[in-house]
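README, section 4: Worked example with a bound small molecule

Sections 1 through 3 covered apo chains. Here we extend the same pipeline to holo records, where the ligand is supplied as SMILES alongside the sequence. The molecule in this example is magnesium ion. Nothing else about the input changes; the structure line simply encodes the ligand pose together with the chain.
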Amino acid sequence: MDPHALRAAYEEERRLREAAERYSEALAAKALQVARVEAVLRQQIAVAREHAALHVKARRAAEEAAAAATRSAAELDAVLAAIPAGIAVFDSELRILRANVAAREVVGIPDPGRDTTASERIQALGLLGADGRPLPREDCPVVRALRGETVAAETYARTPATPGGRPRWVTMSAAPVVEPSGGGSDVVAAVFDVTREHELLEMREDLLRMVSHDLRTPLQAVLTHAHLIRRAADVPPAVAERAEAIVRTSERMGRMLQDLSEMVLLESGHLTLSRVPLDVPAFLREVLERLSAPLPPDRIRLRAAGDAPPVLADPARLERVVVNLLSNALKYSPAGAPVEVSVVAASGDAVEIEVADQGVGIPQEILPRIFDRFYRVSDGRRQPEGLGLGLYIARLLVDAHGGRIAVDSAPGRGSRFVVRLPAAAPAP
Ligand SMILES: Nc1ncnc2c1ncn2[C@@H]1O[C@H](COP(=O)(O)OP(=O)(O)OP(=O)(O)O)[C@@H](O)[C@H]1O
Ligand SMILES: [Mg+2]
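The generated complex, written as structure tokens:
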């Protein structure tokens, strides 16, 4: 073979091999690139799939949230429509944003329209103060709620009056609407019409006042005549005995009427105390001296500490408290069992009057209720007569003096009532 031709063939072969190598390298690089692109694409497809799934989930969640919100709003509408209270939401300018049926139709909260001033809108609510004049703007529950206050069930007279000309009454609560961010400038108010309840209360008060007050005059006449018959010289003993029974019964009835009228005064807030400085031991000695049957003074012992400071009290009212406690102590203990009244100077500038008996005692579970109005124990025992007012009145009177009344008792062991009164401040 021609050496030239051989070299040329070699050269050709080397060139071809190198070209093939370059080509295969380029091919490998391309393949690598394609693989990379494919990996990236795969990744992107996965991400896109994930995004799509998330998107579907998010959309479903949003749809569910919207449905829940719609359901809540419908529930709220149903609640607002169903409750008898008038509910209204006011904005910071006291415009009504929302009001339920009761607010518009039962309570009659007027919507004075948007082109009125805030003052006019308050006036439209028609609330009156204790003096019967329109409630000042700053006292209006809605305005106070705008300032951040929560107003709980306050009762107001309201104009316009009822068709019969009687005042209308409402109980109003109001509170600021607090947003999750902590801010908020709306106010929600709840209003009940309590005109009927108010009228019933007034009727009850009038009736009690009449019963307790107007019945006392004829009763006094019965008592006077019975006294006269009992004391007359020429009366047969049987008649005198009956007259005595009439006296006792009338006196008992008089005490009941007095309790009723005291209750009316206390509950209507019309009781005014005439307080004077009282030396409690001396005061109690006088009270005990005045006692007569059916409160036998010989069963009562008085023990008084000499160091008890004076108290500032209404003597007639404090006597009522003591007599009510004594009457119970005697009534609910066996005939002849002693009753002890003691006075002690308590710590913290107070005086304590204790009335202790050795009577039937009071079961633990009803102790908290014995100071309630008309409460009487009904455990099957035969109970002495009473209205169930004595302790209720005693509690209200002691409260009115800024004091406290407490009891410690157990069945069969007797009872101990303690009246704690603040000592009078020493004269400057
Ligand atoms: N010292 C006491 N011992 C036992 N039970 C008592 C005593 N004091 C009160 N109670 C019980 O508490 C109840 C309420 O007493 P409260 O004085 O208010 O009414 P009352 O004595 O029944 O009637 P009223 O005092 O109106 O004539 C009584 O019915 C009685 O069951
Ligand atoms: Mg009593």
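What to look for in the output: The mean pLDDT is 87. The two ends are 148 Å apart (CA to CA).

Section 5 describes how to batch many such records.
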